[in-house]
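Q: My labmate handed me this sequence with no annotations at all. I'd like to see what the chain might look like in three dimensions before we decide whether it's worth expressing. Could you predict it?
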Amino acid sequence: MPWTGWQHCDRSVTLGRIITCDADVAEGAAWLAAADARFAHALKLTGPLPLRLRADGFDALIGAIISQQVSVASANAMRAKMDAAGLTFEGAILAAGEEGLRAAGLSRQKIRYALALAEAGIDYAALRHAPDAEVIATLTAVPGVGLWTAQIYAMFSLGRADVFAPGDLALQEAAKILFDMPDRPKPKLLAAMAQDWSPWRSVAARALFSYYRVAKQREGIR
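A: Here is what I predict for the chain of 222 residues:
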């Protein structure tokens, strides 16, 4: 069943902190600001950080696959065709096959990835209660679901508080500017830097995404 929106803060989960509401994000932001004056500076510029929770499940991941390496307009057009054809769950994707997915505008590669995801049999409800590493490993085992997609899913579809995506170019660029680095940090270096932001690495990501928009006046991620 897809995520339908948190109604209140829920701190009963035992997997580590789960972000469910604005108060959780604010708590993480306050922790980061106290830990590092540069985050305090960034947060003064960005204002309150967004909750940024999304639906989980198959539909979220098929949307990520559709969006890979195409413009937002192209992704939206493909998504509209798929929605109109009812291609929003595993059974429909498998029944449509290559021909039906091609008619919806998917490339040969995206067709392969969509079918692989539909065939993977992922228990999305179980992922809500799985450790972060298991979530990442389960998702990246599927062709077309890379590490960045899995990390973004864990952060924003599952609300994991201590996941980061060091391969994201917007995060790298924001870190370069905020921490006055000569070059954009490579993923390995940014991942090492993010260790200092635990247990609120996904709030650090929100802060850097927001700071990126302030610094660059454009969206970091779709």
